[in-house]
Protein backbone atom coordinates (compact mmCIF):
# COMPACT_ATOMS: atom_id res chain seq x y z
CA UNK A 1 0.00 0.00 0.00
CA UNK A 2 1.55 3.32 -1.11
CA UNK A 3 0.87 6.96 -0.28
CA UNK A 4 -1.45 7.47 -3.25
CA UNK A 5 -3.70 4.50 -2.50
CA UNK A 6 -3.84 5.41 1.18
CA UNK A 7 -4.78 8.97 0.24
CA UNK A 8 -7.74 7.67 -1.74
CA UNK A 9 -8.85 5.41 1.12
CA UNK A 10 -8.53 8.34 3.51
CA UNK A 11 -10.68 10.53 1.25
CA UNK A 12 -13.46 7.96 1.36
CA UNK A 13 -13.24 7.03 5.05
CA UNK A 14 -11.90 9.90 7.15
CA UNK A 15 -13.54 13.22 8.03
CA UNK A 16 -11.89 16.09 6.13
CA UNK A 17 -11.66 17.86 9.51
CA UNK A 18 -8.71 15.56 10.30
CA UNK A 19 -6.01 17.72 8.71
CA UNK A 20 -2.41 16.69 8.03
CA UNK A 21 0.47 19.08 7.39
CA UNK A 22 2.22 16.62 5.08
CA UNK A 23 0.71 14.36 2.37
CA UNK A 24 2.60 11.32 3.62
CA UNK A 25 1.57 8.11 5.33
CA UNK A 26 4.19 6.98 7.86
CA UNK A 27 4.86 3.24 7.83
CA UNK A 28 7.85 2.96 10.16
CA UNK A 29 9.88 5.17 12.48
CA UNK A 30 13.13 4.72 14.38
CA UNK A 31 15.29 7.24 16.19
CA UNK A 32 15.28 10.54 14.30
CA UNK A 33 13.78 9.11 11.09
CA UNK A 34 10.39 8.24 9.62
CA UNK A 35 9.71 6.14 6.49
CA UNK A 36 6.46 6.62 4.56
CA UNK A 37 4.38 4.09 2.66
CA UNK A 38 6.43 4.73 -0.48
CA UNK A 39 9.64 3.91 1.38
CA UNK A 40 10.88 7.52 1.43
CA UNK A 41 12.97 8.37 4.50
CA UNK A 42 12.56 11.68 6.32
CA UNK A 43 14.54 13.27 9.12
CA UNK A 44 11.74 14.10 11.54
CA UNK A 45 11.93 17.55 13.12
CA UNK A 46 8.27 17.55 14.06
CA UNK A 47 8.42 14.48 16.35
CA UNK A 48 4.63 14.22 16.42
CA UNK A 49 4.35 17.87 17.58
CA UNK A 50 6.86 17.68 20.43
CA UNK A 51 5.89 14.15 21.48
CA UNK A 52 8.79 11.87 20.57
CA UNK A 53 11.48 13.79 22.44
CA UNK A 54 13.46 10.58 23.09
CA UNK A 55 13.19 9.59 19.43
CA UNK A 56 10.95 7.09 17.71
CA UNK A 57 10.70 3.53 18.99
CA UNK A 58 13.20 3.93 21.80
CA UNK A 59 13.96 0.35 22.89
CA UNK A 60 13.51 1.07 26.61
CA UNK A 61 10.09 2.58 26.04
CA UNK A 62 8.99 -0.25 23.75
CA UNK A 63 10.18 -2.90 26.22
CA UNK A 64 8.34 -1.23 29.10
CA UNK A 65 5.13 -1.09 27.06
CA UNK A 66 5.39 -4.75 26.02
CA UNK A 67 6.03 -5.84 29.58
CA UNK A 68 3.02 -3.97 30.93
CA UNK A 69 0.70 -5.00 28.07
CA UNK A 70 1.49 -8.65 28.73
CA UNK A 71 0.61 -8.16 32.41
CA UNK A 72 -2.67 -6.25 32.06
CA UNK A 73 -3.86 -3.43 29.82
CA UNK A 74 -6.50 -1.60 31.82
CA UNK A 75 -8.28 -1.32 35.12
CA UNK A 76 -9.89 2.07 35.61
CA UNK A 77 -8.33 3.80 38.60
CA UNK A 78 -11.87 4.45 39.86
CA UNK A 79 -12.05 0.67 40.29
CA UNK A 80 -8.55 0.14 41.65
CA UNK A 81 -5.36 2.16 41.21
CA UNK A 82 -2.37 0.22 39.86
CA UNK A 83 1.16 0.69 41.16
CA UNK A 84 2.56 2.34 38.02
CA UNK A 85 0.07 5.23 38.42
CA UNK A 86 1.46 5.80 41.90
CA UNK A 87 5.06 5.42 40.70
CA UNK A 88 4.54 7.99 37.96
CA UNK A 89 2.83 10.40 40.35
CA UNK A 90 5.77 10.06 42.73
CA UNK A 91 8.24 10.76 39.93
CA UNK A 92 6.32 13.77 38.60
CA UNK A 93 5.98 15.17 42.11
CA UNK A 94 9.73 14.79 42.58
CA UNK A 95 10.68 16.66 39.39
CA UNK A 96 7.89 19.25 39.55
CA UNK A 97 9.12 22.85 39.82
CA UNK A 98 9.58 24.25 43.31
CA UNK A 99 10.03 22.80 46.81
CA UNK A 100 6.38 22.50 47.88
CA UNK A 101 4.83 19.10 48.48
CA UNK A 102 3.01 18.00 45.32
CA UNK A 103 0.12 15.81 44.16
CA UNK A 104 -0.59 14.45 40.64
CA UNK A 105 -3.76 13.60 38.75
CA UNK A 106 -3.52 11.73 35.42
CA UNK A 107 -5.75 12.01 32.36
CA UNK A 108 -5.29 11.43 28.62
CA UNK A 109 -4.46 14.60 26.67
CA UNK A 110 -3.19 18.13 27.03
CA UNK A 111 -6.70 19.53 26.69
CA UNK A 112 -7.93 17.26 29.50
CA UNK A 113 -5.09 18.39 31.73
CA UNK A 114 -6.09 22.01 31.04
CA UNK A 115 -9.78 21.34 31.73
CA UNK A 116 -8.98 19.65 35.02
CA UNK A 117 -6.53 22.35 36.08
CA UNK A 118 -9.32 24.90 35.63
CA UNK A 119 -11.71 22.75 37.69
CA UNK A 120 -9.11 22.42 40.45
CA UNK A 121 -8.37 26.16 40.46
CA UNK A 122 -12.04 27.07 40.72
CA UNK A 123 -12.75 24.72 43.59
CA UNK A 124 -9.54 25.61 45.41
CA UNK A 125 -10.13 29.36 45.23
CA UNK A 126 -13.93 29.50 45.25
CA UNK A 127 -13.70 31.84 42.24
CA UNK A 128 -14.58 31.48 38.57
CA UNK A 129 -12.47 33.84 36.44
CA UNK A 130 -9.66 32.40 34.28
CA UNK A 131 -7.27 34.82 32.57
CA UNK A 132 -5.54 33.46 29.46
CA UNK A 133 -3.39 35.31 26.94
CA UNK A 134 -3.19 36.31 23.31
CA UNK A 135 -1.32 33.78 21.11
CA UNK A 136 -2.35 30.99 23.51
CA UNK A 137 -3.20 27.42 22.61
CA UNK A 138 -4.62 25.24 25.37
CA UNK A 139 -6.52 22.59 23.40
CA UNK A 140 -9.75 21.92 21.52
CA UNK A 141 -12.29 20.75 24.10
CA UNK A 142 -14.92 23.26 25.25
CA UNK A 143 -13.01 24.99 28.05
CA UNK A 144 -9.66 24.51 26.32
CA UNK A 145 -10.76 26.08 23.04
CA UNK A 146 -12.30 28.95 25.00
CA UNK A 147 -8.86 29.55 26.52
CA UNK A 148 -7.15 29.20 23.12
CA UNK A 149 -6.69 32.54 21.36
CA UNK A 150 -6.64 31.85 17.62
CA UNK A 151 -10.07 31.80 15.98
CA UNK A 152 -9.36 29.83 12.80
CA UNK A 153 -9.29 26.89 12.72
CA UNK A 154 -9.62 26.30 16.46
CA UNK A 155 -12.61 28.33 17.68
CA UNK A 156 -14.66 29.66 14.78
CA UNK A 157 -18.12 28.11 14.69
CA UNK A 158 -17.88 26.53 18.12
CA UNK A 159 -20.04 28.88 20.14
CA UNK A 160 -21.13 29.47 22.81
CA UNK A 161 -17.79 29.28 24.56
CA UNK A 162 -17.06 28.81 28.23
CA UNK A 163 -17.96 31.66 30.54
CA UNK A 164 -15.65 33.64 32.80
CA UNK A 165 -12.67 33.42 30.44
CA UNK A 166 -10.68 36.62 29.89
CA UNK A 167 -7.78 37.45 27.57
CA UNK A 168 -4.69 39.56 28.35
CA UNK A 169 -1.73 40.55 26.17
CA UNK A 170 1.10 37.99 25.96
CA UNK A 171 4.55 39.58 26.26
CA UNK A 172 5.50 39.00 22.60
CA UNK A 173 8.69 40.99 22.17
CA UNK A 174 8.82 40.92 18.37
CA UNK A 175 5.18 42.06 18.06
CA UNK A 176 3.71 44.09 20.89
CA UNK A 177 1.25 47.00 21.06
CA UNK A 178 3.54 49.20 23.16
CA UNK A 179 6.54 49.43 20.86
CA UNK A 180 8.75 47.79 23.50
CA UNK A 181 12.19 46.86 22.19
CA UNK A 182 13.68 44.85 25.08
CA UNK A 183 12.53 41.84 27.07
CA UNK A 184 12.57 43.91 30.25
CA UNK A 185 10.41 46.62 28.72
CA UNK A 186 7.85 44.27 27.18
CA UNK A 187 7.60 42.40 30.48
CA UNK A 188 6.99 45.62 32.37
CA UNK A 189 4.39 46.93 29.93
CA UNK A 190 2.53 43.62 29.64
CA UNK A 191 2.42 43.19 33.41
CA UNK A 192 1.13 46.73 33.93
CA UNK A 193 -1.57 46.20 31.29
CA UNK A 194 -2.57 42.88 32.87
CA UNK A 195 -2.94 44.42 36.32
CA UNK A 196 -4.97 47.33 34.98
CA UNK A 197 -7.25 44.97 33.06
CA UNK A 198 -7.84 42.75 36.08
CA UNK A 199 -8.49 45.67 38.41
CA UNK A 200 -10.79 47.61 36.09
CA UNK A 201 -12.67 45.03 33.99
CA UNK A 202 -12.56 41.69 35.82
CA UNK A 203 -12.07 42.33 39.54
CA UNK A 204 -9.13 40.99 41.48
CA UNK A 205 -11.41 39.02 43.78
CA UNK A 206 -12.98 37.22 40.79
CA UNK A 207 -9.83 35.65 39.33
CA UNK A 208 -9.33 31.97 40.09
CA UNK A 209 -6.20 31.55 37.97
CA UNK A 210 -3.90 32.92 35.31
CA UNK A 211 -3.08 30.30 32.67
CA UNK A 212 -0.03 30.82 30.47
CA UNK A 213 2.38 28.89 28.28
CA UNK A 214 5.92 29.95 29.27
CA UNK A 215 6.75 29.46 25.59
CA UNK A 216 3.63 30.13 23.52
CA UNK A 217 3.54 27.13 21.19
CA UNK A 218 0.87 27.43 18.52
CA UNK A 219 1.17 31.21 18.92
CA UNK A 220 4.64 31.13 17.36
CA UNK A 221 7.20 29.67 19.81
CA UNK A 222 7.35 32.88 21.83
CA UNK A 223 9.23 32.71 25.15
CA UNK A 224 7.76 34.82 27.94
CA UNK A 225 10.45 36.95 29.60
CA UNK A 226 11.59 35.89 33.04
CA UNK A 227 10.49 39.22 34.54
CA UNK A 228 6.95 38.76 33.29
CA UNK A 229 6.60 35.26 34.75
CA UNK A 230 8.09 36.47 38.04
CA UNK A 231 5.67 39.37 38.11
CA UNK A 232 2.72 37.16 37.22
CA UNK A 233 3.57 34.77 40.05
CA UNK A 234 3.82 37.64 42.53
CA UNK A 235 0.59 39.27 41.38
CA UNK A 236 -1.34 36.00 41.52
CA UNK A 237 -0.28 35.53 45.14
CA UNK A 238 -1.19 39.12 46.01
CA UNK A 239 -4.78 38.74 44.84
CA UNK A 240 -5.31 35.17 46.01
CA UNK A 241 -5.34 33.63 42.53
CA UNK A 242 -3.40 30.63 41.21
CA UNK A 243 -0.83 30.40 38.44
CA UNK A 244 -1.42 27.52 36.00
CA UNK A 245 1.68 26.74 33.94
CA UNK A 246 0.79 25.00 30.66
CA UNK A 247 3.91 23.02 29.73
CA UNK A 248 2.15 20.57 27.42
CA UNK A 249 4.46 21.40 24.49
CA UNK A 250 7.39 23.06 26.25
CA UNK A 251 7.85 20.57 29.09
CA UNK A 252 9.60 17.21 29.45
CA UNK A 253 13.04 18.54 28.59
CA UNK A 254 12.18 20.31 25.33
CA UNK A 255 13.67 23.65 26.44
CA UNK A 256 16.68 22.12 28.21
CA UNK A 257 15.08 21.69 31.63
CA UNK A 258 12.28 19.45 32.85
CA UNK A 259 10.01 22.51 32.78
CA UNK A 260 10.55 25.89 31.20
CA UNK A 261 9.98 27.64 34.53
CA UNK A 262 12.94 25.70 35.95
CA UNK A 263 15.19 28.06 33.99
CA UNK A 264 13.97 30.84 36.28
CA UNK A 265 13.58 28.98 39.57
CA UNK A 266 9.82 29.63 39.67
CA UNK A 267 7.10 27.47 41.21
CA UNK A 268 3.60 27.54 39.68
CA UNK A 269 0.60 26.36 41.66
CA UNK A 270 -0.44 23.88 38.95
CA UNK A 271 1.46 22.47 35.97
CA UNK A 272 -0.11 20.78 32.93
CA UNK A 273 1.94 18.12 31.14
CA UNK A 274 1.26 15.84 28.14
CA UNK A 275 2.79 15.24 24.68
CA UNK A 276 6.38 14.06 25.36
CA UNK A 277 5.43 12.72 28.80
CA UNK A 278 4.69 9.24 27.45
CA UNK A 279 6.32 9.02 24.00
CA UNK A 280 3.14 8.75 21.97
CA UNK A 281 0.88 6.85 24.37
CA UNK A 282 -2.19 8.82 25.55
CA UNK A 283 -1.38 10.38 28.91
CA UNK A 284 -1.37 13.77 30.56
CA UNK A 285 -0.99 15.12 34.06
CA UNK A 286 -1.92 17.95 36.36
CA UNK A 287 0.81 18.32 38.97
CA UNK A 288 0.11 20.79 41.72
CA UNK A 289 0.90 22.00 45.18
CA UNK A 290 -0.57 19.64 47.75
CA UNK A 291 -2.32 22.52 49.50
CA UNK A 292 -4.24 23.17 46.27
CA UNK A 293 -4.80 19.60 45.07
CA UNK A 294 -5.99 18.41 48.48
CA UNK A 295 -8.97 20.78 48.34
CA UNK A 296 -10.64 18.55 45.73
CA UNK A 297 -13.01 15.97 47.18
CA UNK A 298 -12.84 12.26 46.22
CA UNK A 299 -14.80 11.68 43.03
CA UNK A 300 -14.75 15.32 41.87
CA UNK A 301 -12.20 14.38 39.21
CA UNK A 302 -12.21 11.20 37.16
CA UNK A 303 -11.26 9.55 33.88
CA UNK A 304 -11.97 6.06 32.53
CA UNK A 305 -8.66 5.82 30.71
CA UNK A 306 -6.59 8.39 32.60
CA UNK A 307 -3.41 6.85 33.95
CA UNK A 308 -3.74 3.73 31.82
CA UNK A 309 -1.04 1.27 32.99
CA UNK A 310 0.52 0.90 29.53
CA UNK A 311 0.78 4.68 29.15
CA UNK A 312 2.21 4.96 32.67
CA UNK A 313 4.84 2.35 31.80
CA UNK A 314 5.77 4.33 28.69
CA UNK A 315 6.00 7.54 30.73
CA UNK A 316 8.19 6.03 33.44
CA UNK A 317 10.57 4.66 30.79
CA UNK A 318 10.57 8.01 28.95
CA UNK A 319 11.50 9.92 32.10
CA UNK A 320 14.31 7.45 32.80
CA UNK A 321 15.68 7.90 29.27
CA UNK A 322 15.60 11.70 29.52
CA UNK A 323 17.37 11.58 32.86
CA UNK A 324 19.90 8.81 32.30
CA UNK A 325 20.84 9.68 28.72
CA UNK A 326 21.45 13.36 29.47
CA UNK A 327 18.74 14.72 27.19
CA UNK A 328 18.19 17.92 29.17
CA UNK A 329 21.77 18.93 28.46
CA UNK A 330 21.44 17.69 24.88
CA UNK A 331 18.42 19.95 24.33
CA UNK A 332 20.50 22.93 25.41
CA UNK A 333 23.33 21.90 23.09
CA UNK A 334 20.96 21.53 20.14
CA UNK A 335 19.52 24.97 20.90
CA UNK A 336 22.91 26.66 20.93
CA UNK A 337 24.05 25.09 17.65
CA UNK A 338 20.76 25.65 15.81
CA UNK A 339 20.25 29.21 17.03
CA UNK A 340 23.79 30.22 16.14
CA UNK A 341 23.28 28.85 12.63
CA UNK A 342 19.91 30.56 12.18
CA UNK A 343 21.09 33.93 13.52
CA UNK A 344 23.88 33.86 10.94
CA UNK A 345 21.37 33.08 8.18
CA UNK A 346 19.12 35.90 9.39
CA UNK A 347 21.84 38.40 8.43
CA UNK A 348 21.72 37.15 4.83
CA UNK A 349 17.96 36.67 4.56
CA UNK A 350 15.94 39.74 5.56
CA UNK A 351 12.65 37.84 5.36
CA UNK A 352 13.69 36.06 8.54
CA UNK A 353 12.28 38.63 10.93
CA UNK A 354 12.99 36.81 14.18
CA UNK A 355 14.74 33.72 15.53
CA UNK A 356 13.75 32.84 19.08
CA UNK A 357 13.24 30.03 21.54
CA UNK A 358 14.67 28.06 24.41
CA UNK A 359 16.69 24.88 24.08
CA UNK A 360 15.44 22.67 21.26
CA UNK A 361 12.21 24.67 20.85
CA UNK A 362 13.02 27.28 18.21
CA UNK A 363 10.82 29.47 16.04
CA UNK A 364 11.72 31.21 12.77
CA UNK A 365 9.33 34.05 11.91
CA UNK A 366 9.00 35.20 8.30
CA UNK A 367 8.03 38.75 7.35
CA UNK A 368 7.86 41.08 4.38
CA UNK A 369 9.08 44.66 4.64
CA UNK A 370 10.05 46.87 7.56
CA UNK A 371 6.51 46.85 8.99
CA UNK A 372 6.91 43.13 9.81
CA UNK A 373 4.00 42.02 7.63
CA UNK A 374 3.59 38.29 8.36
CA UNK A 375 4.59 36.07 5.42
CA UNK A 376 2.78 32.76 5.81
CA UNK A 377 3.52 31.85 2.17
CA UNK A 378 7.24 31.82 2.91
CA UNK A 379 6.74 29.53 5.90
CA UNK A 380 4.69 27.09 3.84
CA UNK A 381 7.18 27.17 0.96
CA UNK A 382 10.08 26.41 3.33
CA UNK A 383 8.12 23.49 4.79
CA UNK A 384 7.43 22.05 1.33
CA UNK A 385 11.00 22.52 0.07
CA UNK A 386 12.39 20.85 3.19
CA UNK A 387 9.99 17.92 2.84
CA UNK A 388 11.06 17.37 -0.76
CA UNK A 389 14.63 17.23 0.56
CA UNK A 390 13.74 14.71 3.27
CA UNK A 391 13.19 16.95 6.31
CA UNK A 392 9.83 17.17 8.10
CA UNK A 393 9.02 20.56 9.63
CA UNK A 394 5.86 22.22 10.94
CA UNK A 395 4.52 25.74 10.64
CA UNK A 396 2.92 27.56 13.56
CA UNK A 397 2.04 31.05 14.76
CA UNK A 398 -1.06 33.18 15.11
CA UNK A 399 -0.39 34.42 11.57
CA UNK A 400 0.88 31.08 10.23
CA UNK A 401 4.25 32.64 9.42
CA UNK A 402 6.56 30.71 11.74
CA UNK A 403 8.52 27.50 11.19
CA UNK A 404 8.89 25.62 14.46
CA UNK A 405 11.87 23.40 15.04
CA UNK A 406 11.19 20.37 17.22
CA UNK A 407 14.09 18.00 16.61
CA UNK A 408 14.34 14.85 18.71
CA UNK A 409 16.50 15.41 21.77
CA UNK A 410 18.17 12.05 21.26
CA UNK A 411 19.93 12.95 18.04
CA UNK A 412 23.50 12.56 16.88
CA UNK A 413 25.70 15.45 15.81
CA UNK A 414 25.57 14.08 12.26
CA UNK A 415 21.75 14.11 12.30
CA UNK A 416 21.76 17.64 13.69
CA UNK A 417 24.12 18.76 10.92
CA UNK A 418 22.01 16.98 8.30
CA UNK A 419 18.88 18.74 9.47
CA UNK A 420 20.49 22.17 9.60
CA UNK A 421 21.95 21.72 6.10
CA UNK A 422 18.54 20.78 4.69
CA UNK A 423 16.92 23.67 6.56
CA UNK A 424 19.48 26.15 5.22
CA UNK A 425 18.94 24.87 1.70
CA UNK A 426 15.19 25.38 2.04
CA UNK A 427 15.57 28.85 3.53
CA UNK A 428 17.95 29.99 0.81
CA UNK A 429 15.85 28.49 -1.98
CA UNK A 430 12.71 30.28 -0.79
CA UNK A 431 14.05 33.50 0.70
CA UNK A 432 17.24 34.45 -1.12
CA UNK A 433 16.78 37.47 -3.41
CA UNK A 434 16.81 36.52 -7.08
CA UNK A 435 19.36 38.44 -9.18
CA UNK A 436 17.66 40.31 -12.02
CA UNK A 437 19.60 40.91 -15.22
CA UNK A 438 20.04 44.46 -16.50
From TrEMBL:
Gene3D superfamilies: Aspartate Aminotransferase, domain 1, Type I PLP-dependent aspartate aminotransferase-like (Major domain). Its cofactor is pyridoxal 5'-phosphate. The keyword Transferase applies. InterPro entries: 4NH2But_aminotransferase_bac (IPR004632), Aminotrans_3 (IPR005814), Aminotrans_3_PPA_site (IPR049704), Class-III_PLP-dep_AT (IPR050103), PyrdxlP-dep_Trfase (IPR015424), PyrdxlP-dep_Trfase_major (IPR015421), PyrdxlP-dep_Trfase_small (IPR015422). GO terms for molecular function: 4-aminobutyrate:2-oxoglutarate transaminase activity; identical protein binding; pyridoxal phosphate binding. One of its GO terms (biological process) is gamma-aminobutyric acid metabolic process. Its EC number is 2.6.1.19. The keyword Transferase applies. Keywords: Aminotransferase, Pyridoxal phosphate, Transferase. PROSITE patterns: AA_TRANSFER_CLASS_3 (PS00600). It holds the Pfam family Aminotran_3. CDD domains: OAT_like. NCBIfam families: GABAtrnsam (TIGR00700). Belongs to the class-III pyridoxal-phosphate-dependent aminotransferase family. This is Gamma-aminobutyrate:alpha-ketoglutarate aminotransferase. It comes from uncultured Truepera sp.
Amino acid sequence: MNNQSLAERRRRAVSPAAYSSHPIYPARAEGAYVWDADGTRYLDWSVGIAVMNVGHSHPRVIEAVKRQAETFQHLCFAVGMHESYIQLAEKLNAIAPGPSEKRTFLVNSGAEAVENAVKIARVATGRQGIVAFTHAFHGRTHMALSLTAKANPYKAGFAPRAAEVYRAQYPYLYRNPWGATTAAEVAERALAALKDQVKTTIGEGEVAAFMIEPVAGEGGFIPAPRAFLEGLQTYAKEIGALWIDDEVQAGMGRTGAWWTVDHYGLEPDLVCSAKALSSGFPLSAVVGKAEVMDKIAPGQLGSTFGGNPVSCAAALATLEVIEEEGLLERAREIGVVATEKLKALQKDLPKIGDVRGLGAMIGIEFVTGPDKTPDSNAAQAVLEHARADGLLLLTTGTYGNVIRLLPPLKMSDAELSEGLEKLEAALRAVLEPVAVGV
